[in-house]
Amino acid sequence: MNQPVLRLVNRPAENKLLSALPADSYERLSPHLVRVFLDRADNVSEAVQCSEYVHFPIGTLVVSIIGHTPSGASAEVGLIGNEGALGVMTVLGGSRAPMREIVDAPGPAYRVRPEVLRSLMDVDAALRGVLLQYVLTRMIEIAGTATCNAHHSVGQRLCRALLMRLQRIGMNPMSLTHERMATVLGARRAAITRAAVALRRAGVISYSRGRLIVLDRPALEACSCECFAGLTQKVEALKLTAAQ
Ligand SMILES: [Zn+2]
Question: How far is ligand 1, taken at its centre, from the CA of residue 213, in Å?
């Protein structure tokens, strides 16, 4: 059951955007936050939940943002865990981008109506600063993903996608099928299978029945393109610049 968030003495450190807010900003926002749980499924109720609110993932929740062409081809354009927020582009005004949001790892989140968030941003410079900086982070990530998809092999991109999941989920094993990875990478399933078999033979990963375990993270980093490390550095540099 969804429970309203009680007026908290301590801010929820589980979400890094919420924990970055000054105490008075969080005090204004917290009465509007409702704790929910997003489960793993591509079902309608989940899509409706995601489309009507801004969600701040906490704990283990990780959501994959999938873009698609008019003919139905798809590719992941974002992976959001407790470092960020879902639907945050709506703070810029207008409606939400037409993308699918698929729960990659189930978990809880705090959600708030976007119009409430926008009205609070009008009167709270600190909240506005934290959210707009995160919007900039998302734009950097989307640009990096587009560049990676255009230039790097399926095998390299598979490694990048696994590293992104390790960074956000922070645990093994992952629940990940070849079919899901084909959707994420915008590649044919046969190409995903070839890349996964090569990683398994090299002792980098193991997988069985949709459960994937990273056995050798340094080797996974070596097999990946430079995009994971490059994007991580850019996002950290942005945080340092904002903190100065
Ligand atoms: Zn790349």
Answer: 21
CA–CA distance, 42 with 71 (Å, rounded to integer): 19
What is the distance in A from the centroid of ligand 1 to the CA of 243?
28
Quote the CA–CA distance of 155 and 232 in Å, as a whole number. Answer: 20
CA of 24 from ligand 1 middle (Å) equals 40
Question: Which residues contact residue 159 at a Cβ distance below 8 angstroms, ignoring those fewer than 6 apart?
Answer: 199, 220, 221, 223, 224, 225, 228
Residues with CB under 5 A from ligand 1 (ion): 148, 152, 225, 227
Q: How far is the CA of 208 from the centre of ligand 1 (A)?
A: 26
pLDDT in tens, the chain (244 residues): 454 444 444 455 589 999 999 999 999 999 999 999 888 764 433 454 556 889 999 988 899 988 888 888 889 999 999 999 998 888 877 666 667 888 888 889 999 999 999 999 999 999 999 999 999 999 999 999 999 999 999 999 999 999 999 988 876 688 888 888 999 999 999 999 999 999 999 999 999 888 899 999 999 999 999 999 998 888 887 776 766 6
47 alpha carbon – ligand 1 mean position (Å): 29
